[in-house]
Amino acid sequence: MKTAVVQTRVDAALKHDADAFFESIGMDTTTAIRIFLKQTLIQHKIPFEIIQDGSFYSEKNMKALEHSKKQMENGQHSIHELVEI
């Protein structure tokens, strides 16, 4: 089978942590990436759920954003300038 090189840049800490995780389950990162690519083609989709690790779209934050939006619509807001530190 003819092979091709896939090269990408990732944060060093992310690579280190991923390498350690994959090693702990008996594979290397290259094998994990190969599995990801094959499963993507088999399933015709990303083979796992993508979850936000932040809280921007959390229920609590969405309510706060909606509250702020209503305040702005009702003229209950003040303008602040961005000041560089």
UniProtKB/TrEMBL annotation:
The keyword Disulfide bond does not apply. Gene3D superfamilies: Met repressor-like. GO terms for biological process: DNA-templated transcription; regulation of DNA-templated transcription. The keyword ATP-binding does not apply. Keywords: Toxin-antitoxin system. Transmembrane segments: none annotated. It comes from the Bacteria. InterPro entries: Arc_rbn_hlx_hlx, RelB/DinJ. Belongs to the RelB/DinJ antitoxin family. NCBIfam families: RelB_DinJ. This is Type II toxin-antitoxin system RelB/DinJ family antitoxin.
